[in-house]
Amino acid sequence: MNDTAAKTAPAADLTHRIGTRLRQARHDLGLSLSELAERTGCYSKSRISNYEQGLRRMGLEESAILASALGTVSPTWLLCLDDDPPVEPEEADLIARYRATDDEGRARLRELAQSLPAAKAKRAKKTA
């Protein structure tokens, strides 16, 4: 393998992995290429398809727009910069509801969330 091929192989692999993540996130939501393109408001389905196939690599701006359109992944996850799993639709719904409520509602939700591990521990003690 010549030097140029050796340098482009890792880049091509990364581009393919990025495309695979984008496709996975889209499929997890049951979206078609057209539906995702419509959600972005600026990308065509052929451009998104090129990203998914690894024919073209998205940059920071593209990953931010696509992550926002998907709503379940972060731009860093799409770009393979972190391996945190995508947010499940139920988690995204909880986050959206938290963000939509007022300060009192947020405080109540945090209080409820903090009580959950304690409630689980109490149930374990009762069954022991």
Structure description:
By secondary structure, the chain is mostly helical. Helix content is 74%, strand content 0%. The protein contains seven helices and no strands. Helix 2 packs across helix 3. The longest helix has 26 residues. The radius of gyration is 20 Å and the shape is elongated. The chain starts with a helix and ends with a helix. The N terminus is likely disordered.
Topology:
Layout: H1 3-28, H2 33-40, H3 45-53, H4 60-70, H5 75-78, H6 89-100, H7 103-127
Helix pairs in contact: 1-3, 2-3
Brief description of this entry?
With 128 residues, the protein is an all-alpha fold. It is 74% helix and 0% strand. It is built from 7 helices and no strands.
Give the tags.
single chain, 128 residues, 74% helix, disordered N terminus
Strand element count: 0
Strand content: under 5%
Order of helix and strand elements from N to C terminus: HHHHHHH
Low-confidence stretches: 1-7
The 3D shape can be described as elongated
Instruction: Outline the biggest β-sheet.
Output: none
How far apart the termini lie comes to 63 Å
Mean pLDDT: 85
How much helical structure, as a percent, in the residues? over 70%
* Category from helices, strands and their pairing: mainly alpha
**Cα radius of gyration in angstroms:** 20 Å
Question: What's the number of helices?
Answer: 7
